[in-house]
Write a structure and sequence with these properties.
Largest sheet of chain B: 2 strands, antiparallel
Strand content of chain A: under 5%
Helix content of chain B: 55-70%
Order of helices and strands of chain A: HHHHHHHHHHHHH
Order of helices and strands of chain B: HHHEEHHHHHHHHHHHH
Strand order of the largest sheet of chain B: 1-2
Number of helices of chain A: 13
Structural class of chain A: mainly alpha
Largest sheet of chain A: none
Helix content of chain A: over 70%
Distance between the termini of chain B: 6 Å
Number of strands of chain B: 2
Oligomer: heterodimer
Structural class of chain B: mainly alpha
Distance between the termini of chain A: 42 Å
Number of strands of chain A: 0
Largest interface: A-B, 99 and 104 residues
Chain lengths: 280, 322
Amino acid sequence: MGKKKNISAFSIINGLIFILICFIILVPLWKVLVDSLDLKTAYGMKFWPEKFGLDGYKLIFMNPTLFKAIKVSLITTISGTLLALTLSTLGAYVLIQWEMPGRTLFANMLLFTMIFSGGMIPTYLVLRSLHLTNTLWVVILFPALNVYNLVLMRNFFEGIPASLYEAATLDGCTPMQTFIRIVLPMSKPALASIGLMYAVSYWNDYTHYKLYILDSNLYNFQMKLRGMVMGSELPTTSGGASENTVKNAAIIIVIIPFMILYPFLQKYFVKGVNIGAVKE
Amino acid sequence: MAKNNNKKVPAQANGTSKSLGTRIYKYRGFYLMFLPVLVFAIIFFYLPMLGVRYAFTNYNGIKTPSFVGFDNFEKMFNMPGFWSAFTNTLEISIVKLVLTTFVAVVVSLFLNEIINLHFKKVVQTIIYLPHFLSWVVTASLFSLILAPSGYGLVNTFLVNIGAIDSNEMIYFLGSSKWWRGAYYIINLWKETGWQTVIFMATLAGMNTELYEAASIDGAGRWGKMRYITFPALANTILTVFILNLAKVMNLFESAFVLQNDAVLDTANVLETYIYYQSFNSGAIPNYGYTTAVGLFKSLVGCVLVLVCNQWSKKVREGRGIV
């Protein structure tokens, strides 16, 4: 009896600690949401807007350059994710052809890039000499080959029974046909997980824009947000919304698409980590 | 290096009896499929590697590079800015790594003790969330929350509880004294939850009979945590630690978006140093010099990866990290 009581006391304290942890994680987000809806910004601690208004959001949506930035974010995320998935699945599929001459060379060639890199400046100079800088191509193409994710994908493909490939080959399928008809349909969970990881990294990309793009017409929303929070690209505030309201509204606009989808997608993200973990 | 080379024994030996040409012809479709990957690897990884030759030249990006031998490296080792960036990189990365891993392990151990599965799932969903926010969003959030004004949440709180006076608010991200502490806390906020995923996966795959046996032997909650759960995690903890240790030189974006001119003495890391020297110095850039710094960084990183790889092979029964 006494032991049982002891356990539940622990559970309650443990539960309370985790409620506190969740609270700490959510407070910054809640604070930004509240302030984005508040036209009266004077004071740090409050849990509800004092003077409710959507003027901050209105200012952002009335600004055409910010709309353009959202468009850039969407275009690069969608095309980049598709390209990156294509490259990782193709590469992964070739790397499980164990008897292919040159397979080890290809594998080592990819793995070497994880050990040594040319560095920031040589990369910049190469991209500049290819006339990729200051175009959206650079932020779509350059991050598209991710060796780490390619290896994750390969680990997943290894789990597909080899008999399926052999049967397809006997039926006269070319490697490409086997890939499209057998491998890809069997890999939906991995495609979802790794595809989502790519989508998040394209959507969140800041570094590649900062390094390779000068033309502010080609900025994505992360760049615009950065500009706004640093104060250089703030839309002129008028009416009710203060600068802080607009900054907070901009943060909310960047994260809201993800926040709405996140509860439904969370399990795929976790699976993605476990694709690699299975092999550990 | 290639961890799986010797793992798969070729199923049929018929391939080896044929000539190399025949075997290559047999795989022609696969070579074609690998071509795009090869092109990307060459353009975006191998061409820049050739670019490290600029480290031995004077090059401003316009005029043709002129060979100067090891001058850039000599200059680099005489620059106080370089040394402070180098030590900052190591200190910040390693403290961050140890701190995040430690807290993630503790959180995982206690998360594992939650009995109500719904509650556990809600907690996991919430603590994973910040990992998916970009560094720009995270920096924006915290620059507003840590602002040294009545608007900043943390400073207001400190004033309210009487810890500081309202006219001596702390500029956490703008003072060398506070910046690193703030940086570590922001990193904990963002990444601890996600770090628990891998630990929770290990715990989920654990043999529950061990717990039952321990209960029969009279082990209490703490005993089980100490003697069963933690040892089960030990290998995963070491793996995660080694994997991340190999990447400590790559620190860039998180430091870059949180730093400002006032804190560069404690916040400047090698990658941000290279960035400022190349693109923000105001003078004509010397790409030769910054390439040399980058090469030094890559070589140190390379050594770290190889050392970690050996270490990993030792503790993980032959499995390296690359």
